[in-house]
Design a protein that fits this description.
The protein is α/β, with parallel strands linked by helices. It is built from three helices and twelve strands.
Length: 231
């Protein structure tokens, strides 16, 4: 159900959705950090969907030795969990800004929810994927080896989540070769476009699919599209 923002109740059954297009990483990071700092118990949860301009991000525990080659791609030290990863156009990122306490969710619950979301989404394309208990994210088996299609890094502040999951859809994967993705040496990366015909890839449809899955997993009954500037 889609409603105007003023009609949405401030409870765990509601979700605001922002489609941000392509944005610089630091601009969105600062906005979601500010949103999390300023929200209160009545603030409606939000889902931000975005693609970033090319950037490497280092998580809080990020080690510089996982950056194998210096390039013109900027490196940003982030406050999310995890090691180094790459973001660029053609990679869809979901930032769920969720009051976990209000929904009685723990950090592990949220990680599992996002992993299952991606697994279910890929199954709609008849693709098999899986999560790994010792390495957050979603993987596919290629020639008997793990290949990562979605990377995950969260931060929890005041019981609320920010940062999220990045899904490789149809992007340039070469920059992953200049790092140890997520801190794993020789980890292969893959993307949706390597497994289905390009004619089946439609960004608008993919965003709708992922949003609907998140809505179902969170038990949301009221949603609204926000087209205002970032908070």
């Amino acid at each position: 159900m889609n409603l105007h923002t003023q009609d949405v109740a401030t409870d765990s059954h509601s979700l605001f959705i922002r489609d941000l297009g392509i944005q610089p990483y630091e601009k969105v990071w600062q906005a979601m950090s500010r949103f999390t700092n300023e929200r209160d118990d009545e603030t409606v949860d939000e889902l931000w969907m975005v693609e970033h301009e090319p950037v490497y991000t280092q998580g809080q525990a990020g080690k510089p030795e996982h950056i194998l080659q210096r390039t013109s791609i900027p490196i940003v030290k982030s406050d999310r969990g995890g090691q180094v990863t790459y973001h660029g156009p053609g990679q869809l990122i979901l930032y769920p800004l969720i009051n976990l306490r209000r929904r009685s969710l723990g950090v592990r619950d949220m990680v599992t929810l996002l992993e299952e979301l991606v697994v279910q989404w890929l199954s709609a394309y008849d693709l098999t994927s899986y999560a790994k208990p010792d390495a957050p994210g979603v993987y596919m088996s290629i020639a008997g080896k793990d290949a990562k299609i979605a990377s995950l890094g969260l931060r929890i502040r005041r019981g609320c989540s920010f940062h999220g999951v990045s899904i490789n859809v149809a992007m340039d994967l070469e920059p992953f070769g200049w790092i140890n993705p997520c801190g794993y040496e020789n980890l292969s990366m893959t993307q949706l476009s390597q497994h289905i015909e390009s004619s089946r890839i439609d960004k608008s449809t993919i965003k709708q699919q992922l949003t609907q899955l998140l809505v179902q997993q969170l038990g949301v009954t009221h949603t609204a599209i926000i087209d205002k500037p970032l908070p």
